[in-house]
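Anyone have C-alpha cells for Putative hydrolase of the HAD superfamily? Sequence:
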Amino acid sequence: MKLNDIEHIYFDLDHTLWDFDKNSALAFEQMFSRRKISLKIEDFLEVYVPVNYKYWELYRDNQVSKEDLRIGRLKDSFDLLKMETSARTIEELSIEYIEFLPENNHLLDGSVEILNYLEANYQLHIITNGFEEVQHKKLHNSGISKFFATVTTSEEAGVKKPHSLIFETALNKASALPSKSLMIGDNLVADVKGAQDFGMSTIYFDYYRKKEKIDGRQIQTLNELRDYL
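Reply: yep, here.
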C-alpha cells in the first residue's frame, strides 16, 4: 500500500545504503597488509563482526563510550583469536580503521537508483548513530551526499537512536512533521521503534534477510521501496 502523505524520507546509512560489511572488510585487508599481520581476513571477521555488533549495542545504550568501542572491539577480537597485541598497536589500528573505512565506498545494490527515483518527489535525509567524522566522509566519498537535504548524527544531537531527541533534532532541521516523515533503516530498535515512538512512519530494511515476523512494513531490497513510495 502506497504511503500517500509522506514528504520527508529519513535513511539510516550503514547497512541501509552504505555497504558497511564489504567496506569494513576491505579496510581491514588494507591495514593487515600494510602492517604484515598474518591473519586471514575471513578468520578475523568471523570473530570481529559479532564483537563489533555487541559494542555498537552497548554504545547505543550508553553503556560504553566511543573510545571504549573503538579500542574494545579490536582488543576483544584479538584476545579471542589468541593473538598477543600490544595496547599501542591496538590504539594505532583503531585510528587507522577510522581513516581507511570511508576510503572504501561500495553501496548496497540499488542505492543510487532508488535515491534518484525518490528525490523527484521527496526531501531525503540521513539519521545515523555513526561517528560524525566518518559518516560525512562516507556520504561524500561514495557520491551520494548530493541527495540529502540534511544529515543528523548522534554526536551532533547529543543522543543516539532510538532516543526521541535525535529524531526531533533531525525533523526540526528540515521543518518536517512526524506525520509526514518516514524512517527507513536496518535496526528494529534504533530505527523502527525509535521513529515509531516519535510518530513517524517506518519501513524496516531486512538487510540480513532474517525474514523476522514484525508488525509493520519491511523490505529486503531497496527496489521494494517503490511498492510504498
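The first strand starts at residue 8 and ends at 11.
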